[in-house]
Amino acid sequence: MTRSIQLRVPASTANLGPGYDSLGMALSLYLTVSATLSHASANDSPTTPSISLTYTGAEPGAISLDPSKNLISRTLLDTLRAAHTSLPANSVLSIHIDNPIPLGRGLGSSGSAVVAGVVLANWAAQLGWSRDKLLQHCVAIEGHPDNVAPSLLGGFVASVMSGSGPTAAQDADHEPPVYTLQLPFAKDKIKLVAVVPAYHTPTDLARAALPKAYAVGQVVHTVQRAVMLTHVLGNPNVHGKGTHLTKQALGCLLDDVLHQPYRMHLIPGFQQLKSALNTNPDVLGLCVSGAGPTVLIFCTLDVDVPQLTSSIEVEYAKLPHPEHPGKVGIDVLVLPIECAEEGSQWTES
Ligand SMILES: Nc1ncnc2c1ncn2[C@@H]1O[C@H](COP(=O)(O)OP(=O)(O)OP(=O)(O)O)[C@@H](O)[C@H]1O
Ligand SMILES: N[C@@H](CCO)C(=O)O
């Protein structure tokens, strides 16, 4: 008997300025995974199940095809173990991954891979988990909800992990309750552009750079902005500033003091880009996407993307490359992108 699944998982941007570990948005760039599970005949002598992996897409040399190391198959195996089950004896699981999401750049590649692994486990072992249960488990594995929640559910999502601190342990066996809320995002008024520089910021390194405690002033600054930002991104009229979302308003709401300032040494280009685009009337605001180094720019619908691209390239061309000592200039991909309303989709046959 053979069963198959085709799965599509959107990328995501997390934090959106002050929403550290809380806000995230699914983006129109998709990891796709196809898998086939074959069982040998019951008459054959039992053999241990096997998994084979193939990969196309971003940085193939950086992705392990060893099932115990690859993030998707490792997540699948951890999920089966947490569910106290395993692949059937005599089964062969073939997985093909096609991944255009740049790795270690702040576009949620690992969150999408975790979602794919959990959905594959649910399918392979016929666990019958609901989307809610899938989400709880994805968050337990990823350790923070702001990438996996939008990648699974779609749209602009606020998440709360009950009873946890900001950096809950990543533990597939202990699922913290997670509450999510899908918020409106005014894609008819705001255009998104992702600026993806050609270097990596590993998320674990960026998380380790944060302080263990914050001053009350930093917390108040953050809460004030995060609360208003969730409303303004869906309904861009700011009281006292007329009927348009003004540059001052969004620039102020995206200002973050919890994570971005502590990560600047890992994200060369962000400060320079922020200063350079300050006078561009079609740039409403910008923030670091996830743990960086990608920068997410919020633009008016009138933005001239080729012109914006040129001004961005000029800034990165001046910078020393963080991964190539002695080299000046960082290549950069400027990607107009949309909020993906639909989360992960799969079809089984
Ligand atoms: N499709 C995939 N298949 C297998 N492994 C993947 C895949 N996508 C990401 N990974 C693993 O995740 C790592 C990147 O994770 P990391 O958390 O550092 O960055 P990110 O998720 O791209 O960025 P951010 O968390 O800031 O949004 C890769 O180096 C790779 O090991
Ligand atoms: N909230 C996470 C997102 C990582 O993608 C962080 O900033 O570390």
TrEMBL record:
- Which is one Gene Ontology cellular component term of this protein? ribosome
Q: Does the keyword Ribonucleoprotein apply?
A: yes
What is the top-level taxon of the source organism? Eukaryota
Primary enzyme class: transferase
Which organism was this protein described from? Catenaria anguillulae PL171
Give the PANTHER family listed for this entry: HOMOSERINE KINASE (PTHR20861:SF1), HOMOSERINE/4-DIPHOSPHOCYTIDYL-2-C-METHYL-D-ERYTHRITOL KINASE (PTHR20861)
Keywords associated with the record: Amino-acid biosynthesis, ATP-binding, Kinase, Nucleotide-binding, Ribonucleoprotein, Ribosomal protein, Threonine biosynthesis, Transferase
Q: GO molecular function terms here?
A: ATP binding; homoserine kinase activity
Which GO biological process entries does UniProt record here? threonine biosynthetic process
Provide the family line.
Answer: Belongs to the GHMP kinase family. Homoserine kinase subfamily.
**What Pfam families is this protein classified in?**
GHMP_kinases_C, GHMP_kinases_N
Q: In which pathway does it act?
A: Amino-acid biosynthesis; L-threonine biosynthesis; L-threonine from L-aspartate: step 4/5
Report what the protein is called: Homoserine kinase
Reactions that this protein is recorded to catalyse: L-homoserine + ATP = O-phospho-L-homoserine + ADP + H(+)
Q: Which Gene3D superfamilies match?
A: 3.30.230.10, GHMP kinase, C-terminal domain
GHMP kinase N-terminal domain residues are: 71-155
Q: Any idea of its EC number?
A: 2.7.1.39
- Residues in GHMP kinase C-terminal domain copies: 255-301
Q: Which residues form a coiled coil?
A: none
